[in-house]
Design brief:
mainly beta, single chain
Length: 85
Amino acid sequence: MSYKLSTNKRYTAKEIARFYDGYQNIDICLIVEDADDKRDRGMLIPQFDNSGDSFLVYMNGKIYPDSAFDGMELIIIEKVSIKPG
């Protein structure tokens, strides 16, 4: 069963990780902003390796693991399909 996320809503990193669990939605990147500081925007990139992270976040010129966002809320701004073709 696929876990759904809606735009313009707050989610914790754990909730967003469920979106990518089990290799689902691997063709979708999420554009997000920090719920507490709207100046911080970034892109979530699905991560499927043995690192234990469900996604990486490119924000403010740096790449962070999902664990860097524990305890924070992110707002989904847009869903971007990265399907080839």
